[in-house]
Amino acid sequence: MKAVSKVQRHYDEVAHIYDRRYDRSGGRAYYSHISRHVMEGLPGDKRLLDLGCGTGLFLSRYRSTGGDGVGLDISRMMLNRAQERSPSSSLCMGNAEHLPFRDGSFDVVASLLAFSYLRNPDRVLEESFRILSPGGTIAICTLGKNLFTTGLPAVYQIGEVMGVTHVGMGNFGERYYSGNEMGSLLREAGFRQITVKRISFAHVSLARPLFHLAKKFEPFVETHIPYLAYNLVAFARKPE
Ligand SMILES: C[S@@+](CC[C@H](N)C(=O)[O-])C[C@H]1O[C@@H](n2cnc3c(N)ncnc32)[C@H](O)[C@@H]1O
Asked: Is the beta carbon of 143 within 6 A of some atom in ligand 1?
Protein backbone atom coordinates (compact mmCIF):
# COMPACT_ATOMS: atom_id res chain seq x y z
CA MET A 1 0.00 0.00 0.00
CA LYS A 2 1.31 3.48 -0.87
CA ALA A 3 2.43 5.44 2.21
CA VAL A 4 -0.07 8.26 1.64
CA SER A 5 -3.06 5.92 1.34
CA LYS A 6 -1.92 4.09 4.46
CA VAL A 7 -1.91 7.35 6.44
CA GLN A 8 -5.25 8.26 4.90
CA ARG A 9 -6.79 4.93 5.88
CA HIS A 10 -5.39 5.22 9.40
CA TYR A 11 -6.88 8.67 9.97
CA ASP A 12 -10.19 7.59 8.49
CA GLU A 13 -10.21 4.78 11.08
CA VAL A 14 -9.25 6.88 14.11
CA ALA A 15 -11.20 10.04 13.27
CA HIS A 16 -13.92 9.17 15.80
CA ILE A 17 -11.39 8.94 18.66
CA TYR A 18 -8.98 11.70 17.57
CA ASP A 19 -10.45 14.45 19.72
CA ARG A 20 -10.34 12.21 22.79
CA ARG A 21 -6.57 12.36 22.46
CA TYR A 22 -6.09 16.05 21.72
CA ASP A 23 -9.19 17.79 23.02
CA ARG A 24 -9.57 16.36 26.54
CA SER A 25 -7.62 16.85 29.81
CA GLY A 26 -3.85 16.34 29.25
CA GLY A 27 -4.27 16.13 25.49
CA ARG A 28 -6.03 19.47 25.40
CA ALA A 29 -3.31 21.04 27.59
CA TYR A 30 -0.66 19.68 25.20
CA TYR A 31 -2.55 20.88 22.13
CA SER A 32 -3.28 24.31 23.64
CA HIS A 33 0.40 24.71 24.38
CA ILE A 34 1.59 24.01 20.84
CA SER A 35 -1.22 25.90 19.13
CA ARG A 36 -0.61 28.94 21.34
CA HIS A 37 3.03 28.99 20.19
CA VAL A 38 1.92 28.77 16.55
CA MET A 39 -0.77 31.41 16.99
CA GLU A 40 1.70 33.84 18.58
CA GLY A 41 3.73 33.97 15.36
CA LEU A 42 0.78 34.50 13.01
CA PRO A 43 -1.22 37.55 12.03
CA GLY A 44 -4.66 36.86 13.53
CA ASP A 45 -7.15 38.29 11.07
CA LYS A 46 -5.99 36.89 7.74
CA ARG A 47 -6.86 34.11 5.32
CA LEU A 48 -5.24 30.86 6.42
CA LEU A 49 -4.71 27.47 4.81
CA ASP A 50 -4.35 24.67 7.38
CA LEU A 51 -2.45 21.75 5.79
CA GLY A 52 -3.45 18.39 7.30
CA CYS A 53 -6.15 20.14 9.30
CA GLY A 54 -7.59 16.90 10.70
CA THR A 55 -10.67 17.52 12.84
CA GLY A 56 -10.16 21.27 12.62
CA LEU A 57 -8.74 21.87 16.10
CA PHE A 58 -6.36 24.61 14.96
CA LEU A 59 -8.57 26.02 12.22
CA SER A 60 -11.38 26.66 14.69
CA ARG A 61 -8.96 28.36 17.11
CA TYR A 62 -7.65 30.56 14.32
CA ARG A 63 -11.14 31.48 13.19
CA SER A 64 -12.11 32.37 16.75
CA THR A 65 -9.45 35.12 16.66
CA GLY A 66 -11.18 36.79 13.71
CA GLY A 67 -9.31 35.07 10.89
CA ASP A 68 -10.78 33.05 8.10
CA GLY A 69 -9.47 29.92 6.52
CA VAL A 70 -9.61 26.67 4.64
CA GLY A 71 -8.64 23.26 5.97
CA LEU A 72 -7.14 20.63 3.68
CA ASP A 73 -6.67 16.97 4.58
CA ILE A 74 -6.36 13.59 2.87
CA SER A 75 -8.78 11.93 5.29
CA ARG A 76 -12.48 12.29 4.51
CA MET A 77 -13.46 11.12 8.01
CA MET A 78 -11.21 13.69 9.72
CA LEU A 79 -12.76 16.38 7.51
CA ASN A 80 -16.25 15.20 8.44
CA ARG A 81 -15.35 15.75 12.10
CA ALA A 82 -13.98 19.19 11.27
CA GLN A 83 -17.26 20.06 9.54
CA GLU A 84 -19.22 18.89 12.60
CA ARG A 85 -17.05 21.01 14.90
CA SER A 86 -17.51 24.08 12.80
CA PRO A 87 -20.23 23.78 10.14
CA SER A 88 -19.32 27.07 8.46
CA SER A 89 -15.68 25.99 7.85
CA SER A 90 -14.35 25.68 4.30
CA LEU A 91 -12.77 22.26 3.92
CA CYS A 92 -11.11 20.50 1.07
CA MET A 93 -10.05 16.88 0.64
CA GLY A 94 -6.62 16.58 -0.96
CA ASN A 95 -2.93 15.91 -0.70
CA ALA A 96 -0.77 18.78 0.57
CA GLU A 97 1.63 18.07 -2.29
CA HIS A 98 -0.83 19.37 -4.89
CA LEU A 99 -2.76 22.36 -3.64
CA PRO A 100 -5.88 23.14 -5.66
CA PHE A 101 -5.59 26.90 -5.14
CA ARG A 102 -4.47 29.82 -7.27
CA ASP A 103 -1.10 31.54 -6.77
CA GLY A 104 -1.11 34.06 -3.92
CA SER A 105 -4.54 33.11 -2.60
CA PHE A 106 -3.66 32.86 1.14
CA ASP A 107 -1.90 35.12 3.67
CA VAL A 108 -0.96 32.33 6.05
CA VAL A 109 -0.17 28.62 5.79
CA ALA A 110 -0.12 26.58 9.00
CA SER A 111 0.42 22.91 9.59
CA LEU A 112 0.33 21.21 12.98
CA LEU A 113 1.31 17.59 13.66
CA ALA A 114 1.07 16.61 9.99
CA PHE A 115 4.45 17.47 8.47
CA SER A 116 6.13 14.27 9.74
CA TYR A 117 3.88 12.23 7.41
CA LEU A 118 4.85 14.01 4.22
CA ARG A 119 6.66 11.94 1.61
CA ASN A 120 7.82 15.03 -0.28
CA PRO A 121 8.10 17.89 2.19
CA ASP A 122 10.03 19.99 -0.36
CA ARG A 123 7.13 19.73 -2.79
CA VAL A 124 4.65 20.77 -0.05
CA LEU A 125 6.75 23.80 0.83
CA GLU A 126 7.05 24.79 -2.86
CA GLU A 127 3.28 24.57 -3.16
CA SER A 128 2.82 26.57 0.05
CA PHE A 129 5.16 29.24 -1.31
CA ARG A 130 3.18 29.42 -4.53
CA ILE A 131 -0.25 29.85 -2.94
CA LEU A 132 0.95 32.42 -0.37
CA SER A 133 0.72 36.11 -1.18
CA PRO A 134 3.98 38.13 -1.10
CA GLY A 135 4.85 38.78 2.56
CA GLY A 136 2.75 35.79 3.63
CA THR A 137 3.68 33.65 6.63
CA ILE A 138 4.11 29.91 7.01
CA ALA A 139 4.13 28.09 10.37
CA ILE A 140 5.01 24.42 10.75
CA CYS A 141 4.70 22.61 14.05
CA THR A 142 5.91 19.01 13.99
CA LEU A 143 7.76 16.48 16.11
CA GLY A 144 11.44 17.31 16.18
CA LYS A 145 14.39 14.95 16.14
CA ASN A 146 15.53 14.13 19.68
CA LEU A 147 16.32 11.29 22.07
CA PHE A 148 12.65 10.37 22.55
CA THR A 149 11.41 10.63 18.99
CA THR A 150 14.31 8.49 17.73
CA GLY A 151 12.65 5.51 19.40
CA LEU A 152 9.15 6.26 18.10
CA PRO A 153 9.32 4.37 14.76
CA ALA A 154 10.15 1.14 16.64
CA VAL A 155 7.27 1.71 19.08
CA TYR A 156 4.90 2.37 16.18
CA GLN A 157 6.04 -0.72 14.29
CA ILE A 158 5.49 -2.90 17.35
CA GLY A 159 2.09 -1.28 17.93
CA GLU A 160 1.09 -2.01 14.34
CA VAL A 161 2.18 -5.66 14.57
CA MET A 162 0.17 -6.01 17.78
CA GLY A 163 -2.88 -4.46 16.12
CA VAL A 164 -3.11 -1.54 18.54
CA THR A 165 -5.76 1.00 17.46
CA HIS A 166 -4.42 4.27 18.70
CA VAL A 167 -4.17 7.70 17.08
CA GLY A 168 -0.87 7.91 15.18
CA MET A 169 0.06 4.27 15.87
CA GLY A 170 1.39 2.71 12.68
CA ASN A 171 4.44 2.25 10.54
CA PHE A 172 4.09 5.30 8.29
CA GLY A 173 7.77 6.10 7.75
CA GLU A 174 7.34 9.35 9.65
CA ARG A 175 10.25 11.79 9.64
CA TYR A 176 11.35 13.97 12.50
CA TYR A 177 13.39 17.07 11.72
CA SER A 178 16.19 18.94 13.40
CA GLY A 179 15.92 22.73 13.46
CA ASN A 180 18.64 22.98 10.81
CA GLU A 181 16.92 20.52 8.49
CA MET A 182 13.64 22.40 8.77
CA GLY A 183 15.41 25.71 8.19
CA SER A 184 17.11 24.36 5.05
CA LEU A 185 13.85 22.99 3.62
CA LEU A 186 12.17 26.36 4.07
CA ARG A 187 15.11 28.27 2.59
CA GLU A 188 15.29 26.00 -0.45
CA ALA A 189 11.59 26.59 -1.10
CA GLY A 190 12.28 30.36 -1.22
CA PHE A 191 11.19 31.38 2.29
CA ARG A 192 13.13 33.97 4.31
CA GLN A 193 13.09 35.40 7.87
CA ILE A 194 13.15 31.83 9.14
CA THR A 195 12.97 31.11 12.87
CA VAL A 196 12.80 27.68 14.46
CA LYS A 197 12.30 26.95 18.14
CA ARG A 198 11.74 23.81 20.18
CA ILE A 199 8.60 23.58 22.30
CA SER A 200 6.69 21.17 24.59
CA PHE A 201 8.06 18.69 27.10
CA ALA A 202 4.77 17.46 28.57
CA HIS A 203 3.80 15.13 25.74
CA VAL A 204 0.27 13.83 25.37
CA SER A 205 1.56 10.22 25.42
CA LEU A 206 2.93 10.47 28.96
CA ALA A 207 0.99 8.83 31.77
CA ARG A 208 -0.90 11.40 33.85
CA PRO A 209 1.53 11.77 36.83
CA LEU A 210 4.49 12.03 34.46
CA PHE A 211 2.60 14.52 32.30
CA HIS A 212 2.03 16.81 35.29
CA LEU A 213 5.66 16.51 36.33
CA ALA A 214 6.84 17.26 32.78
CA LYS A 215 4.47 20.24 32.64
CA LYS A 216 6.26 21.75 35.65
CA PHE A 217 9.63 21.40 33.94
CA GLU A 218 8.39 22.49 30.51
CA PRO A 219 9.38 26.18 30.72
CA PHE A 220 12.85 25.22 31.96
CA VAL A 221 13.34 22.61 29.22
CA GLU A 222 12.15 24.96 26.47
CA THR A 223 14.54 27.68 27.61
CA HIS A 224 17.61 25.80 28.79
CA ILE A 225 17.59 22.32 27.22
CA PRO A 226 15.45 22.75 24.10
CA TYR A 227 16.90 19.60 22.55
CA LEU A 228 14.66 17.64 24.92
CA ALA A 229 11.50 19.42 23.78
CA TYR A 230 9.33 17.23 21.53
CA ASN A 231 8.11 19.62 18.88
CA LEU A 232 9.64 22.25 16.77
CA VAL A 233 7.77 25.24 15.49
CA ALA A 234 9.13 27.02 12.44
CA PHE A 235 8.02 30.36 11.03
CA ALA A 236 9.07 31.90 7.73
CA ARG A 237 7.95 34.57 5.28
CA LYS A 238 7.57 34.71 1.54
CA PRO A 239 9.53 37.78 0.42
CA GLU A 240 7.45 40.85 -0.60
C1 LIG B 1 -1.92 14.02 13.76
S2 LIG B 1 -3.12 14.59 12.61
C3 LIG B 1 -3.04 16.37 12.87
C4 LIG B 1 -4.36 17.02 12.56
C5 LIG B 1 -4.46 18.51 12.86
N6 LIG B 1 -3.47 19.28 12.13
C7 LIG B 1 -4.31 18.78 14.33
O8 LIG B 1 -3.44 19.60 14.69
O9 LIG B 1 -5.06 18.21 15.13
C10 LIG B 1 -2.31 14.44 11.03
C11 LIG B 1 -3.23 14.80 9.87
O12 LIG B 1 -2.44 14.98 8.70
C13 LIG B 1 -3.19 14.47 7.60
N14 LIG B 1 -2.26 14.21 6.51
C15 LIG B 1 -1.22 13.35 6.49
N16 LIG B 1 -0.58 13.39 5.31
C17 LIG B 1 -1.22 14.31 4.54
C18 LIG B 1 -1.04 14.81 3.22
N19 LIG B 1 -0.06 14.36 2.43
N20 LIG B 1 -1.90 15.75 2.77
C21 LIG B 1 -2.90 16.21 3.54
N22 LIG B 1 -3.13 15.76 4.80
C23 LIG B 1 -2.30 14.84 5.31
C24 LIG B 1 -3.86 13.22 8.19
O25 LIG B 1 -4.94 12.77 7.41
C26 LIG B 1 -4.26 13.72 9.57
O27 LIG B 1 -5.55 14.29 9.58
From this structure: no
Does residue 113 line the site of ligand 1, with CB under 6 A?
Answer: yes
pLDDT in tens, 86-111: 999 999 999 999 999 999 999 999 99
- In this structure, the residue with its CA closest to atom 26 of ligand 1 is 54
CA pair distance 64, 71, nearest whole angstrom: 15
- As a whole-number percent, the residues of the chain with pLDDT over 70 amount to 99
CA 193 to the chain's CA centroid = 20
pLDDT tens digits, residue range 110-139?
999 999 999 999 999 999 999 999 999 999
CB count within 10 Å of CB 99 equals 22
Q: Which residue has a Cα nearest atom 13 of ligand 1?
A: 52
Domains by residue range for the chain, with CATH:
3-237 (3.40.50.150)
Q: Whose CA is nearest to atom 4 of ligand 1?
A: 54
Q: How far is the CA of 74 from the centre of ligand 1 (A)?
A: 7
Residue 79 Cβ contacting ligand 1 at under 6 Å: no
